[in-house]
C-alpha cells in the first residue's frame, strides 16, 4: 500500500465507524468514499 492510500483508507475506516456509532449517515458515506480513494491510489501506484 502506498502511504497516501493507507492514510485515506485508515481515515475512511475511522469516519465510517464514528458514523455508525453516532448514526450519522453522511459521515459513514464519507468514510466509505475515503476508503475507495485509498484503494484507487494504491491501484494507481501499483501496490496491492
TrEMBL record:
InterPro entries: CsbD, YjbJ_sf
Domain CsbD-like: 3-44
Pfam families linked to this entry: CsbD
Skewed-composition ranges (Basic and acidic residues): 10-28
Region named Disordered: 1-48
Domain of life: Bacteria
Family per similarity comment: Belongs to the UPF0337 (CsbD) family.
Name under which the protein is recorded: CsbD family protein
UniProt source species: Streptomyces bohaiensis
